[in-house]
Structure formats: structure tokens, C-alpha cells
């Protein structure tokens, strides 16, 4: 099973920049990860699919890790849409803090 997400191009670009900064060729990075140079090339250019295990292997070669975190506590876009449904943008901009009495 491979992962193919729009963000993979960004991860591939970060990987490539780190690999180059470390002075590693694609061949060297591939050998260190136990993968083919073609896999490295495809990954850096946003093509092909890569398994989560191979992704982790590649990232470890350049000292990176992919982390996930729980999103609890942050509303989803649907929740925000429901929360502000029916409110006009000008109403939202007019909200101000109460004035202090002098």
C-alpha cells in the first residue's frame, strides 16, 4: 500500500534540500535507506507512491521524522462553517470589546 498525497511533493522537496545540504547524492541516500535511486528520484519529484515504511527509512537517512498529532481541540472547517453560518462578514468585523467607562 502506497501513500500519494498532495503534500508528498513538499515532503520530497524538504528531503531533497536536507540531502543536498548533507552532501549526499541520490545513490548514497538510496544505499543508506536500502532503496533504489529511482525511488529517491521519484520521491523528490513528487511522483510515484511510497509506503509509510519506506518514507520513514528515507527521512531517517537525512535525520528527519514525520510526526502526527491529535487534532482535538481545534474545530474542523465544517464546524467553523456551521458555527458562523448566517453571519455576514461585516457583522463579524463590527464586534469590538466594550468601551471602558471614563
Distance between the termini: 67 Å
The biggest sheet amounts to: none
Highest-level CATH class of the domain at 8-61 = Mainly Alpha
Global shape:
elongated
Per CATH, the architecture of the domain at 8-61 is: Orthogonal Bundle
Count of helical stretches: 6
Provide the descriptors you would attach to this structure in a database record.
single chain; 434 Repressor (Amino-terminal Domain); elongated; 0% strand; 102 residues; mainly alpha
Short description:
The protein is an all-alpha fold and 102 residues long. Helices cover 51% and strands 0% of the residues. The longest helix is centred in the N-terminal third of the chain and has 14 residues, at 8-21.
Task: Describe the model.
This protein has helices at residues 8-21, 26-33, 37-44, 52-61, 77-83, 89-93. With 102 residues, the chain is mainly α. The chain has a domain at 8-61: lambda repressor-like DNA-binding domains (434 Repressor (Amino-terminal Domain), Orthogonal Bundle). α2 (26-33) packs across α3 (37-44) and α2 crosses α4. The N and C termini lie far apart (67 Å).
